[in-house]
Amino acid sequence: MASIKQKTDSKGRTVYQVQASDGRGHRVYRTFRPEPTWSAKTTQRELRKFAAQLENDLKGGRVLIRGERQEEARRAAAKAAKVQTFAQYTERVWLPQKRASSARNTMRVYESALRLHILPALGPSLLGEITPPMLTALFYNVQAEGYAEATQELVWIITGAIFEAAVQDGLLEHDPMKKARRPAASKDTKIERQELAYTADELQAIFQAIQREPLTWRALVLLLASTGIRRGEAAGLQWDCVNFDTGEITIRRNLQPCKGGTYTTTPKPAENGPSWFRPMCWTCCASFARSNRSPCGGYLPGHTAPNP
Description:
CATH class of the largest domain: Mainly Alpha
CATH superfamily of the largest domain: Tyrosine recombinase, N-terminal domain
Radius of gyration: 25 Å
Distance between the termini: 39 Å
């Protein structure tokens, strides 16, 4: 029998995760989204029908588990092995394999970088005719157009991954990325980064200005300034993250905006694990203690404040 779990999506709507098994160790998960106009009785009836159909489809071989989807992607890659242009290989071979093993948000980032930067420059060219100077020109053009270093890094990584896969698939004997040159960070960028840090006088001016603001905003600004945590990590704080005895906060969540609301991820840096600690100034402790709301969670502009 299928198992059903009730959950809430990023927009706050109730959805159901349905897990079905074929009795041989194969499991699949699907999400059931009821219509907003349905009554509770109708929702439960349609949910049971959805779960039963999923179970029947799995047992009848009409539903692919994750491993089978990846194998199907590999077979499609082999079938498309005769493609020649960079765009054809990327769209028919590389992207399907990435979609089978990557998160949707990751794929949106990759597809955007391909559409805006990589395919316009390399798409029409034959794979075997793309040279290291052509790749070097692509990377320097992205820098010259003023894109952030993170974007330049992303273009480098995606392009390298595509050519590495093409070599593994036997379409290329040598990887042209190995001889391509990557631009160094410009001096202008380095100067800009130095200017992003507030001076002691600027921080003092900010602290004086927030004295006229509500307590919630004073606590948030003091927290950001005294700990150096990211704004998403501050927005993800809840009361279970604050230890008044030791004056520490535990970073467990990173709240990020997305279309239609927010979603929660694990904090950075990943090597520190899913949670890590930061000492908190006692002014922040006092501000939190006087507040009758959650410390910072949800108070960034555009976010919904949680209940106390």
